[in-house]
Amino acid sequence: MKKRKKLNGFDIFANIFMLVIVFYCVIPLVLLLVSSFTEETSLIRDGYSFFPKALSLSAYEYLFKSGRKIMRAYAMSFIVTGIGTTMSLLLTTTLAYAISKKNLPGRKLLTFLVFFTMLFNGGLVPTYLMYTGTFHIKNTILALIVPTLLVRAYYVMLMRSYFLTSLPGEVLEAAAIDGASEFQIFGRIAVPMSKPIIATVLMFSMIIYWNDWQNGLYYVTTKTSLYTIQNLLNRMIQEIQFLASNAVVGQSESTATIPSATVRMAIAVIGILPIAVVYPLIQKNFAKGITLGAVKG
Fold first, then answer.
1. SS3 at position 37
2. What is the pLDDT of residues 82-118, one digit of tens each?
3. Cβ-proximal residues to 278 (8 Å cutoff; 6+ apart), any chain
């Protein structure tokens, strides 16, 4: 039977410190969830509280009157996130592997061009004109995928550094001597041994695509069927603010009952719910990837 390891002073301090950080990370989420179930008048009168005096489902009832739109937006978000993350990971991995090869012609220039995009970009207006005028992706599903594909140069450089420092050169050279092509070395050796960094880039790319709302705001103007959950919820917030302002000036009495404050909380809960469910599962696979990707003996 193994003896339990005794904790020293540093371990105790580190555990307490991490618990404090976790506490400060979880508390806002709990307050957000509780506020979404708080009655509108109670929230306005008493402010945000972990123990509200009155609970209500009115915010979710208001949102789910548009239940079909929300489900369609969720489906579009899953499609865009799945396709975009897969394509982004493929491009990032192959580009990073290519510029990690020391014998690649033009390697320094290509690396510089990738690094240069981390420091400078063309700006919003030229980017918009290029995607709408040259590539004609406006009001198409590509508008939600393409603009995010090649703008994460940091991940390319991060993965390139991993390929240079963590992949044993002797293993790659042995595979080349045995007659393996560059594609075989990449697919059968480099990728399986790079699971930790691939899992990390996968997680961040997925979160970026799921939380993205700017592409839909800029490039999807007429086809509301292409709205992702973030775009739909953003649109609903704007409509609620418009209706609430009309109610204030007396143009519409029926809109005075809209739970505008609690609806914002409920919208945030709906937006982060899938990530909150999926992220722990990916984090577990990420930990496994670190073990599986380690160089043995």
1. coil
2. 999 999 899 899 988 888 888 888 888 888 888 888 8
3. 206
Distance CA 8, CA 238 (A): 54
The pair phi, psi for residue 231, each rounded to 5°, is -65, -40
In sequence order, what DSSP letters do the residues of 237-263 get, joined into one string? HHHHHHHHHHHHTTS-SGGGG--HHHH
pLDDT in tens, 228-259: 888 887 887 777 766 666 655 454 444 555 66
Distance CA 194, CA 66 (A): 44
Cα torsion at 26, 32, 34, 35 (round to 10°)? 160
C-alpha–C-alpha distance, residues 29 and 35, integer Å? 10
From CA 233, how far away is CA 228, in angstroms rounded?
A: 9
The tens digit of pLDDT for each residue in 15-42 reads 889 899 988 888 888 888 888 888 878 8
